[in-house]
């Protein structure tokens, strides 16, 4: 068996010797081990026999929010070289139902291949996690996990967020349990990312039927043409960022700047009211501070209100020790 930079060329007509098949199978990485399924064997399957439509007739990987990408020039170039034995084979479960590798299947057919090697899995109810009650649950989790290795488009935070939303749709809001579920997918997400996903799902459900959600883009679209500047009462430095616009407008026009507030994180009416009050109080306090600063500045024009003492040393020079203190 001859490999070329990790690739083994195979004929596109599907006529592959049994010995070459076995050698390729032996060279492939260890199959993915995930709850809900057990690896059985490798099998060389006619691509026309692979079933890849869901119950609604969709042909994309259902865990993907934007569907299966069709512009994979890099993947197409890779597959044209043959089988990359450094990568996991695409997977199927009984009756040749595709588990992952939807994009790969599309490109293989485009390139004219008739047969490819697949990892065959058998459902294993005994290995279900506490978060899996159906085969569909286990299959979704498998798909998430199989899109976290090299060679695949990494699963996104937004996609996992939707997965968590679906999995806990009928369960009580339980952040530790949600975080535990995300970690069970064995993704390369930080603890902070797992917390953020759980928080978003919890907040979105808490505000459902109570608060209309607006992020900045949606808020900008809403106020388009109204002649106002936005103040997000949830953002920590929103007031400080807005103040220069208020000052410049007053200097140029002598008129107030029209402002509209919104809260990108509120889950209750009280939260909207409270955070709006806090932000407007902060805005007024900052305006008063500016007035006091201007008054003192006018009677001390000969004094610069700041002095640069130096910089923290950051420039590394070979064989020269870093200086102490400021430079």
- Number of separate strands: 8
What is the H/E order?
EHEHEEEHEHHHHHEHEH
Globally, the shape reads: elongated
| Helix-residue proportion | 40-55%
Main sheet record: 4 strands, mixed
If you average the pLDDT, what whole number results?
90
Number of continuous helical runs: 10
Q: Estimate what percentage of residues fall within beta strands.
A: 5-15%
Order of neighbouring strands in the sheet with most strands: 2-6-4-5
Structural class designation: alpha/beta
CA distance, first residue to last residue: 62 Å
Low-confidence stretches: none
Radius of gyration (CA) equals 29 Å
Itemize the secondary structure elements and their pairings.
Layout: E1 7-8, H1 18-27, E2 37-46, H2 73-80, E3 83-84, E4 91-93, E5 97-100, H3 102-111, E6 115-123, H4 135-146, H5 157-167, H6 175-184, H7 191-207, H8 216-223, E7 229-232, H9 238-253, E8 259-262, H10 269-298
Parallel strand pairs: 4-6, 7-8
Antiparallel strand pairs: 1-3, 2-6, 4-5
């Amino acid at each position: 068996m001859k490999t070329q930079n990790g690739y083994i060329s195979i004929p596109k007509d599907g006529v592959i010797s049994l010995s070459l098949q076995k050698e390729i199978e032996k060279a492939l990485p260890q199959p993915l081990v995930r709850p809900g399924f057990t690896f059985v064997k490798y099998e060389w399957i006619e691509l026309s026999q692979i079933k890849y439509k869901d119950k609604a007739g969709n042909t994309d990987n259902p865990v993907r929010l934007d569907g299966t990408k069709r512009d994979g020039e890099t993947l197409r170039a890779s597959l044209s070289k043959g089988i990359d034995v450094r990568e996991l084979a695409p997977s199927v479960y009984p009756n040749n139902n595709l588990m992952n590798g939807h994009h790969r299947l599309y490109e293989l057919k485009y390139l004219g291949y008739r047969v490819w090697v697949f990892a065959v899995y058998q459902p294993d109810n005994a290995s279900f996690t506490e978060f899996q009650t159906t085969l569909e649950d286990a299959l979704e989790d498998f798909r998430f996990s199989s899109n976290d290795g090299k060679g695949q488009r990494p699963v996104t935070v937004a996609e996992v967020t939707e997965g968590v939303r679906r999995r806990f749709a009928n369960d009580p809001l339980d952040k530790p349990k949600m975080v535990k579920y995300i970690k069970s997918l064995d993704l390369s997400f930080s603890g902070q990312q797992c917390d953020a996903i759980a928080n978003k799902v919890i907040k979105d459900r808490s505000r459902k039927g109570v608060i209309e959600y607006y992020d900045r883009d949606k808020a900008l679209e809403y106020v388009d043409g109204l002649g106002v500047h936005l103040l997000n009462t949830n953002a920590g430095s929103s007031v400080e960022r807005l103040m220069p616009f208020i000052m410049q407008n007053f200097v140029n026009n002598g008129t107030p700047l029209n402002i509209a507030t919104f809260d990108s994180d509120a889950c209750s009416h009280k939260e909207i009211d409270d955070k709006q009050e806090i932000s407007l109080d902060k805005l007024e306090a900052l305006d008063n501070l500016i007035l006091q600063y201007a008054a003192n500045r006018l009677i001390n024009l000969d004094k610069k209100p700041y002095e640069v003492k130096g910089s923290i040393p950051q420039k590394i020079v070979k064989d020269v020790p870093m200086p102490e203190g400021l430079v």
